[in-house]
Design goal:
- The chain has 2 domains: about 5-85, lambda repressor-like DNA-binding domains (434 Repressor (Amino-terminal Domain), Orthogonal Bundle); about 90-280, 2-Layer Sandwich (Endonuclease, Chain A), CATH 3.30.870.
- The chain is about 50% helix and about 10% strand.
- It has helices spanning about 5-25, 30-35, 40-50, 55-65, 70-80, 100-105, 125-135, 140-150, 170-175, 180-195, 250-265, 270-280, and strands at about 110-115, 165-170, 200-205, 220-225, 235, 240-245.
- Strand 5 (about 235) and strand 6 (about 240-245) form a beta hairpin.
- InterPro entries: Cro/C1-type_HTH, DUF5753, Lambda_DNA-bd_dom_sf.
- Pfam families: DUF5753, HTH_31.
- This is Helix-turn-helix domain-containing protein.
Length: about 280
């Protein structure tokens, strides 16, 4: 399966380019807005992604920024791609943030999980058990949509060139029996299989490792093919909110944390053996 451009990534790239072009002219966002007869905050809202950029707005900005024909062609194409719909748009009611769009074009995904098996490696039964536990008042249709949306993410691993996935998984996530013994054994078996995939590195962080750098919670680093056009983002998630971090210092901090976790965790071969032992220890 070939990779298709992510509109989320293209929209982010367009915002960054619009800011770069404005700064190249030496103008503030308020000055550009005044020249175009817009509200003074309109330009900065475009650059932050708080407002949708319409075609006429792009054309007006490019005129003000005096871009070359080549630049105009590139930016017009970016705008067109940013307005397309990813498969996840059909699940906007159950995928409320932009994470899937950012994940869709990542070339390297580095994630630490402390409570759950990472979504890309979850079995359907495990997903369903988690959704039911977290949405006790949801009807069956909502549960099915949430399960379908989560499973849809796994198409990443079937691409012609799948992303490199590096997972550090806390022992707590594999010890907690989710969905009952049968479901959990199947989930652990899936993790053992994943250890053999050429694009997956899976490490277990055992309780014996003691205190570690990420005791504040799980996180994911998303890296892209061109780090200049698409810098790394860090994704933080909990039950009530999500956060995307893009500043260089923030990203560097989490990358260092991930390196520390990798150093403390079991190596991939020992992790596969560990998972096999845990599955055998689950009582009926």
């Amino acid at each position: 399966m070939a990779q298709v451009p992510s509109p989320t990534i293209r929209a982010r790239r367009l915002r960054r380019e619009l800011r770069r072009l404005r700064e190249r002219t030496g103008r503030t966002s308020e000055e550009v807005a005044k020249l175009l007869g817009w509200h003074r905050t309109k330009v900065i809202r475009f650059e932050l992604g708080h407002s949708r950029v319409m075609t006429k707005d792009i054309e007006a900005l490019l005129d003000i920024y005096e871009v070359s024909d080549e630049e105009r062609e590139v930016l017009t194409a970016l705008h067109r791609q940013a307005r397309q719909k990813g498969w996840w748009s059909a699940y906007g009611d159950v995928l409320p943030d932009d994470y899937v769009g950012f994940e869709a074009e990542a070339t390297v995904i580095s994630t630490f999980e402390s409570l759950y098996v990472p979504g890309l490696l979850q079995t359907e039964e495990y997903v369903r058990a988690i959704v039911r536990a977290g949405r006790s008042t949801a009807d069956q249709d909502e549960i099915d949509r949430r399960v379908s949306a989560r499973l849809g993410r796994k198409v990443l691993l079937s691409r012609d060139v799948p992303p490199a996935l590096w997972v550090v998984l806390d022992e707590a996530a594999v010890r907690r029996v989710v969905g009952g013994p049968k479901v959990m054994r199947a989930q652990l078996a899936r993790l053992v299989e994943a250890c053999d995939l050429p694009t997956v590195e899976l490490q277990i962080l055992p309780f014996a490792a003691g205190a570690h750098a990420a005791m504040g919670g799980p996180f994911t680093l998303l890296d892209y093919a061109d780090s200049l056009l698409d810098p790394t983002v860090v994704y933080l998630d909990n039950d009530t909110s999500t956060l995307l971090l893009e500043e260089g210092q923030q990203v560097a901090r989490y990358r260092l944390m991930f390196d520390h976790l990798r150093a403390k965790a079991l190596d991939p071969d020992r992790s596969a053996d560990f998972l096999t032992r845990v599955a055998a220890e689950i009582p009926d």
